[in-house]
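This is your field. Pick holes in the following sequence-structure pair:
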Amino acid sequence: MFNNQPRALYPLALTNTGERFGYYIMLSVLVLYLQAKFGFDENTAGLYYSVFLAGVYFMPVIGGWFADRVGLGKCVVAGIGLLLVGYTLISLPLSSGFALPLVVIALTIISIGTGFFKGNLLLLFGNLYENEQYANSRESGFSLYYMANNIGAMFAPAAVTKITNSFLASKGLYYSANVASLANQFKQNTISIDNQIWLQQMADTMGWHGDLLTFSDFYISALSHAYNIGFAVAVGSLLLSLTIYFVFRMWFKHADYNGRDKNVAMVELTPQQTRSRIMALCAVFAVVIFFWMAFHQNGTSLTYFARDYTATEVVGWVRMGFNIGVLAMIAVIVYLIFGAWQSQNERTRRMCSINAVVLLVAIYFMYQEMGSVPLHIQPQEFQQFNPFFVIALTPISLLIFDSLHQKGKEPSAPMKIALGMLVAAFGYLILIYCSVGLPAPAELDGRTCATPVVPQYLIATYLVLTFAELLLSPMGQSFVSKVAPPKYKGVMMGCWFASGAIGNYLSRIPSLLWKEIPLWLNWTILMVLCLISAGIMFAILNKINEATK
């Protein structure tokens, strides 16, 4: 798995890990922040979220265009600089009328900065595998790079949850899923009598002795400020990324070139080959739009479902999934097992096995110490499962595809992409099953469902969507870096992300329909779109494979 990989894999992956940690701190609570601070409904918050994500995924086209002309490394550094400015602005806890414009400005700068950083760092990484020594390790290398990115994403929701709980506790408050929503209803004078009584009861349980309007202002301000502190943490993680990048720059300086660099020998393509490859890539880009639309629901509709329809307390073994330390240990155990199995050194195998057993014992004692006390959870904590599953399942997926490769049966990258879309459809089938019979979002009127489902349904959905992601995302990135014409690599990688931009904008459709249709129908729309995109991909598979040989 780690054999025959360039040493620059590690600093480049860690550079992206730091950036991803900050990004997912912000993304995991963005709609919750917008709803709490500005009183947005699901539709409006979803609009801001989807436009921002569209910008994040479209800007690599611009960043790629610049990289094809001025160089990858310069664009990466410029991207980090812009990201630092953006996260600094969004972390400012303004309470004046300028707060919303400032958030819009910050999100715009973050989008531009990500566009210069994300795709170009990936291309710089891909250039490492132009060396014949590492050519056969390209797809496994991209999977490892993708896995490392998700380390930052896995710890982000836990970090922002810890920050939120600590800050609210310092103000004599605690997090409750619908207090912010009802507090905004009270401020806007749209609250029902029943909801006002419930809000008063929540204020009483927090020891509040003043009037309800002051409590509403105080709670909203405290919760919003807690999220601002989380955004500020992203600034620190970006500074760490910048440090890693410059300290180890000599390791990958040889890969800092683009298709216009006359000093680097490259494969020359005929005009017909160039056209065929670009057309094939564009066909893939068009089809994966619908996958991204369905996949990027974690920050909107899946977060709404976690907040409004999923139990806020967990018992038994499920509590272990909401302990970030346990998840980290499980991920380490997976890699220790693979290390023991693949190592040729007896001493290494023994040490890996012993460490895996020690960690298993530690997890057992941690579970015993929990006793029977229920664990209170917050909506954003579910977002740590997707990156955790990416990290834990990456070695398994590499093992499966390596075995198939040895037998000459490994599917092509386009085939993996098609299979990923098919798998994603099954993820939403789980949500359809558990949503039948639940009240429509419009019936809740800002409160949570009286008969919430167990968290296992949402965890299982994230598991299946992660299987789909591992088949599609790293394989797609590897495919683009491999077959894109050298002079257009920056733009083509940018177009890969641009397809995600369109999909991310369309991801607001479930938010738009959130209070208009039954809950199960929202998930059905997403499942059907995944099935349609998979069908189209399978239909054009042979043409894509032929054009990109």
Summary: The chain has 22 helices and two strands.
